[in-house]
Structures are given as structure tokens and as C-alpha cells.
């Protein structure tokens, strides 16, 4: 398992804390978007992935069932299918910093996830639940 690589170590983005997993995450996101059922109702929420090791993206949120781990912003449809996601790392490389300034760090990932939705889905009258 120690020899499995998702990205080239010679061309790593220093600003992205998830740079070694970014190609795998982008591939997963594209597959989720390709196979998502087109629905009008979407939910946006945070989710914790339990992790006790050492990493710069690890969060500690007190009074939660999972206190230590990776915090992910998730966009799901009404049946619970994960449509899109983004791992929280303080700031998200490659996103619109204007969205972060205007709407905050919690809303900026949602706006970027909405922009990544297929055109057929964005044309619908979408309703978001938080």
C-alpha cells in the first residue's frame, strides 16, 4: 500500500493540502456528477470523516460524535446520493476568493459545487436545504 500514488510527487501544488489525493478526489467527483440522478431538491451539509493521524487538514470539533477527522462539505440529493463534495482545508485552492469574501467560508464551497453541476441539472428550479 505504501507504493500507491494518486499524483506525481514532482509536480505538487504547495497551496493545496490535499494535493496528493486531488486527482483521485477529482475523478470521484466527476463520477458522482456523471451518475447522479437529476433531482430538484439538494441538501448541503458538513460531514466528518474520522481520522486520528497527523495531517494539516484534520479538524477538532467538540461535542460531535466524530470529534477528530476531515471536515467535508457535501452536496446530496433527497435520497442521500452524494452529488459533490469538498474537503475543508481552511481555504480551497482554485476557488473564487470573491465568493469567500462576499458569502463566507461555509457558502463558497457550495457555490463552486453548484457551478460544477451538469447543465441539465442547473437549468431546473433547484431547491437547497441546509
Automatic annotation (TrEMBL):
Give all residue intervals belonging to the PiggyBac transposable element-derived protein domain: 3-120
Q: Which GO terms describe its molecular function?
A: sequence-specific DNA binding
Q: What is this protein called?
A: PiggyBac transposable element-derived protein domain-containing protein
User: Pfam families, per this entry?
Assistant: DDE_Tnp_1_7
